Automatic annotation (TrEMBL):
<protein>
    <recommendedName>
        <fullName>Cell division protein FtsX</fullName>
    </recommendedName>
</protein>
<feature type="domain" description="ABC3 transporter permease C-terminal">
    <location>
        <begin position="181"/>
        <end position="296"/>
    </location>
</feature>
<dbReference type="GO" id="GO:0005886">
    <property type="term" value="C:plasma membrane"/>
</dbReference>
<keyword id="KW-1133">Transmembrane helix</keyword>
<keyword id="KW-0997">Cell inner membrane</keyword>
<feature type="transmembrane region" description="Helical">
    <location>
        <begin position="170"/>
        <end position="195"/>
    </location>
</feature>
<keyword id="KW-0472">Membrane</keyword>
<dbReference type="InterPro" id="IPR003838">
    <property type="entry name" value="ABC3_permease_C"/>
</dbReference>
<dbReference type="GO" id="GO:0051301">
    <property type="term" value="P:cell division"/>
</dbReference>
<dbReference type="Pfam" id="PF18075">
    <property type="entry name" value="FtsX_ECD"/>
</dbReference>
<comment type="similarity">
    <text>Belongs to the ABC-4 integral membrane protein family. FtsX subfamily.</text>
</comment>
<feature type="transmembrane region" description="Helical">
    <location>
        <begin position="226"/>
        <end position="249"/>
    </location>
</feature>
<keyword id="KW-0812">Transmembrane</keyword>
<feature type="transmembrane region" description="Helical">
    <location>
        <begin position="277"/>
        <end position="296"/>
    </location>
</feature>
<dbReference type="GO" id="GO:0032153">
    <property type="term" value="C:cell division site"/>
</dbReference>
<feature type="transmembrane region" description="Helical">
    <location>
        <begin position="27"/>
        <end position="48"/>
    </location>
</feature>
<keyword id="KW-1003">Cell membrane</keyword>
Length: 302
């Protein structure tokens, strides 16, 4: 066991010495991989930060029926009972929002209070808010019901409130797929960069490797420092990429805060969880080591 540890410690030290002996080449390779890795990390930060915002929005579609301004008092309650009786399977809940209650809610908002105070009368209509049950064809069913209810008496307009939420979910799904494809592209860049780095190191150490074989060095002894070279390059590049991403999020959050404040909300971009970042470092190190093994196998056959 102690012999095995000594061999790996020696291989790690040799890899570090080779990185240090060519600082410009090593730094160039690390920067290339780091900048490439920073792109999916920032994209993942945006996706991770957007998901809680979407989860806070009710996904079950709420169809709002606005009654005509001249509708008689009690028409909203009658309409609510009618809808509940005619569509018991589709409707989960029905509530009536009286025009007086809607006006009080708006007046409680400082942004609307001054504007509403100068109005001679209440311009808001009574409304019936219908929450639908979840189902497989929910979006299509909600659109069909909204179209049907537009033809009812005393109904001025019908609004499908949650349709944009489903569009947002579709966009997030598209972003996830794009992020997966981007991760594949980044993996290919890491493999190619490490492969070329190890290839140049193997060609540079060609004579040294030949002498080592002549004195009885095994293939694993020859290859092991190159594997550590690839793995160390991947780990250092990942750490640099995480640091660059954290720095990039500062100006992005400042710009996003100004945009979010104009909408009266707060959104902050954060890096993915530490466990996910650690997993990414391990995956990149394994990919880099595999690429190094492939490169040293191909370029030390002499």
């Amino acid at each position: 066991m102690s012999r095995w540890l000594r061999q790996h410690r020696y291989a790690c030290l040799v890899a570090l010495r080779r990185l240090w002996s060519q600082p410009f080449s090593s730094l160039s390779n690390i920067l290339v991989i780091s900048l490439t890795l920073a792109i999916p990390i920032i994209a993942a930060s945006v996706l991770v930060s957007a998901q809680p915002v979407v989860r806070q929005i009710p996904v079950s579609p709420e169809v709002t029926l606005f009654l005509q301004p001249g509708a008689a008092a009690g028409s909203a309650a009658q309409l609510a009972r009618r809808l509940q009786d005619e569509h018991p399977q589709e409707i989960q809940a029905v509530r009536v929002v009286a025009r007086e209650d809607a006006l009080k809610t708006l007046k409680a908002n400082p942004s609307w209070a001054d504007a509403l105070s100068v109005l001679p009368s209440n311009p808001l209509p009574d409304a019936v808010v219908v929450t639908l049950h979840e189902s497989a064809g929910l979006a299509k069913q909600a659109s069909a019901l909204a179209q049907e209810w537009r033809q009812l008496d005393h109904v001025d307009s019908v609004q499908l409130d949650s349709e944009w939420v489903r569009r947002l979910e579709a966009i997030l799904g598209f972003v996830r797929i794009g992020l997966g494809l981007l991760a594949i592209g980044v993996a290919l860049v890491v493999l190619a960069t490490v492969f070329n780095t190890v290839r140049m190191q193997a060609l540079t150490q060609r004579e040294e490797i030949g002498v080592a074989r002549l004195v009885g060095a095994t293939e694993s002894f020859v290859r092991r420092p190159f594997l550590y070279l690839g793995a160390l390059t991947g780990v250092i590049s990942c750490l640099v990429a995480i640091a660059l991403s954290a720095l990039a999020l500062n100006p992005l959050n400042a710009a996003l805060a100004r945009l979010a404040n104009s909408y009266g909300t707060q959104v902050v971009l954060r890096l993915p969880e530490s466990l996910n970042l650690l997993l990414a470092v391990v995956i990149v190190a394994i990919l880099a080591a595999l690429s190094a093994r492939w490169s040293v196998t191909r370029n030390t056959r002499f």
